[in-house]
């Protein structure tokens, strides 16, 4: 599950819907804008899907989408109504609902780390690999640009 602060709706993978045998309601097709700016069309939703967060169970509407590597994307908007406290360093969310404390822990293995310029290897440090194949042929204008960029490196 991904709790996404930028998601406008909740999404569930089509594969998971099939595995769980959830009832799908038809909807007009909709566009889903991906983080890279591309849009994909999808349709259908599942009402009152139960999702367990820590000790707490929520019921939400989820729109179907082909998710790769994820089962569910949960928009973060509903968390704002709960007075959620987030510790981004430890990846822990805490909130109370109906007097019950709920804690959700993230997986540190799934986080991205910041790469500094010092951590990047320079081209000179990269081991040369020999390649025995036909050379590519480029138009003269493109060849000139490639040579210019290589020289700048």
Description:
By secondary structure, this protein is of the alpha+beta class. Helices cover 16% and strands 34% of the residues. It is built from three helices and ten strands. It has helices at residues 14-20, 77-80, 140-152, and strands at residues 2-4, 11-13, 30-33, 39-42, 45-53, 56-65, 72-75, 85-87, 92-97, 100-105. A five-stranded mixed sheet has the order 1-7-2-6-5. Residues 121-133 have low confidence and may be disordered.
CATH topology of the largest domain: Cathepsin D, subunit A, domain 1
Mean pLDDT: 77
* Tally of individual helices: 3
Q: Tell me the CATH superfamily of the largest domain.
A: Acid Proteases
Tell me the overall shape.
flat
Helix content: 10-25%
Series of secondary-structure elements, N-terminal to C-terminal:
EEHEEEEEHEEEH
CATH class of the largest domain: Mainly Beta
Major beta-sheet overview: 5 strands, mixed
- Determine the N-to-C terminus distance: 41 Å
Number of domains: 2
Indicate the radius of gyration in whole angstroms.
Answer: 23 Å
Query: What is the level-2 CATH architecture name of the largest domain?
Result: Beta Barrel
Strand content: 25-35%
Question: Ranges with pLDDT <50 over ≥5 residues?
Answer: 121-133
Structural class determined from secondary elements: alpha+beta
Largest sheet strand order: 1-7-2-6-5
């Amino acid at each position: 599950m991904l709790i996404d602060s930028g998601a406008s709706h909740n999404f569930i993978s089509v594969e998971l819907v099939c595995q769980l045998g959830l009832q799908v309601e038809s909807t007009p097709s909709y566009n889903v804008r991906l983080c890279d700016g591309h849009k994909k069309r999808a349709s259908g939703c599942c009402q009152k899907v139960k999702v367990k967060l820590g000790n707490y169970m929520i019921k939400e509407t989820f729109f179907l989408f082909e998710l790769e590597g994820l089962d569910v994307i949960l928009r973060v908007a509903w968390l704002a109504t709960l007075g959620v406290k987030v510790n981004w360093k430890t990846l822990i969310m805490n909130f109370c609902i109906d007097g019950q404390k709920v804690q959700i822990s993230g997986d540190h293995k799934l986080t991205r780390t910041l790469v500094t310029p010092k951590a990047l290897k320079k081209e000179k440090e990269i081991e040369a690999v020999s390649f025995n194949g036909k050379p590519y042929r480029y138009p003269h204008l493109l060849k000139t640009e490639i040579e210019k960029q290589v020289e700048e490196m």
